[in-house]
Specification:
With 372 residues, the protein is an alpha/beta fold. The protein is built from 15 helices and 13 strands. It has helices at residues 10-24, 38-46, 49-52, 72-82, 105-110, 121-130, 147-160, 174-182, 196-202, 208-212, 225-240, 260-269, 300-303, 319-323, 355-369; strands at 31-35, 57-61, 87-91, 114-117, 135-142, 165-171, 191-194, 218-220, 246-248, 270-272, 275-278, 282-285, 289-291. Strands 2-1-7-8-9 form a five-stranded parallel sheet. β3 (87-91), α5 (105-110) and β4 (114-117) form a beta-alpha-beta unit. The longest helix has 16 residues, at 225-240. 47% of the residues are buried. The model is unreliable at 368-372 (pLDDT under 50).
Length: 372
């Protein structure tokens, strides 16, 4: 399959690994590279990349999983909306099992709320057409990757005048999260593997501040093993040569200025919130999106009363520190014991892009027992 098979060839991977090992010998100190996207985290563990990199190169896992950064309070708000007797709440599958303060959406469904999993926000429009006597609310979340499809769905609802459809908007932005990480004195990073999917929408220009203000290199990467090996190699070249640039390894899909159509849809439907709470990172200014007043009739936060309360995480869960890259999943006291994919305590174990889920599925034995 084009753009897949050629990025999984063992000979190419071995060649890149040898070049990485050669460059690593020129490093003046051990380095830490953060991959921002949860998709990268899973690829790294699925293909065993972290285990075969030179020991002086450490990969740190960042807050690139949109389900993982969702605070409990917003889950509680979604459940409160779903508990209205005339509401059908729809959302993606990963969100169903994320624990709120008292229950998950899946548990709320078992208790009688009409909550349905969809594969696209457009599926929610279909449900709205088929149930004109019900209020259909789509629980929208994700980075800039999923925001265009949400925006286009809302525009479709407006054009068809589907008045029984609305959205509970929880879209977040990657750049404010990166700024929060870079301003954290507890986290010393030497470079970033940039998010491929987000960058398909926003392009590479928005990352220039990382080089200009913080003097850290970043390479936008694809998700296959050779993509990641090549991105690490490109970062090492920059570090060894004392360069600091935004480079694009994923140029088969990512363009410098991004996707104009997707950006236009986002800007037409959404505006930036003054503040939004992230799990692990706290309140970040201008880091979330909300529906513009022009489309208030499709805004669930306008249509329905919600608690809008901040809720502390479970005391035993250290998802916040994992999302900030301060801890690795196996360093959490409940990882793999009380907290598993079947009985998740925190969001990082629930989502298919969560770091804890990646460690549990692919790397828990080598990481846990290697420390004994």
């Amino acid at each position: 399959m084009k753009y897949v098979d050629e990025f999984r060839e063992p000979k190419k991977a071995l060649s890149l690994l040898k070049q990485i090992e050669k460059l690593s010998q020129q490093l003046k100190k051990p380095i830490k590279i953060m991959e921002i996207c949860g998709g990268h985290t899973h690829s790294i563990f699925k293909y065993g990349i972290e285990d075969i990199l030179p020991k002086n190169i450490e990969l740190i896992h960042g807050p690139g999983c949109p389900v993982c950064v969702m605070p409990k309070g917003r889950l509680d708000d979604a459940i409160a909306i779903a508990q209205n007797p005339n509401v059908i709440l729809t959302t993606f599958g990963d969100t169903m099992r994320v624990p709120g303060s008292k229950a998950s959406l899946l548990q709320a469904k078992a208790q009688g709320a009409d909550i349905r999993m969809v594969y696209s926000p457009l599926d929610s429009l279909v449900i709205a057409r088929e149930n004109p006597d019900k209020e259909i609310v789509f629980f929208a979340l994700g980075f800039e990757t999923t925001a265009p499809s949400t925006a286009l769905t809302l525009l479709q609802a407006a054009s068809e005048e589907i008045h029984n459809f609305s959205m509970f908007c929880n879209h977040v932005l990657v750049i404010p999260a990166l700024k929060a990480l870079l301003n954290n004195p507890d986290l010393q990073l030497d470079g970033f593997i940039g998010p491929g999917h987000v960058s398909m929408v926003i392009g590479t220009d928005p990352y220039q501040f990382i080089c200009q203000k913080y003097y850290k290199p970043i390479v936008i990467s694809g998700f296959e093993p050779i993509d990641i090996f090549q991105s690490v190699w490109m970062l090492l070249q920059q570090i060894v040569e004392n360069r600091c640039e935004v480079e694009n390894q994923y140029n088969r899909l990512v363009e410098k200025t991004g996707n104009d159509v997707a950006i236009a849809a986002i800007n037409k439907v959404f505006e930036v919130r003054e503040n939004f709470e992230w799990r692990g990172l706290g309140d970040l200014p201008y880091s979330g999106l909300k529906i513009r007043s022009d489309y208030a009739q499709f805004d669930a936060e306008v249509k329905f009363p919600i608690p809008n309360l901040k809720v502390a995480d479970h005391k035993a869960c250290q998802c916040g520190e994992i999302l900030k890259g301060v801890l690795k999943p196996w360093q959490c006291k409940v990882f793999g014991t009380a907290c598993t994919p079947e009985t998740p305590i925190g969001t990082c174990m629930v989502s298919s892009e969560g770091a804890c889920a990646a460690y549990y599925k692919y790397g828990r034995f080598s990481k846990m027992f290697g420390k004994l």
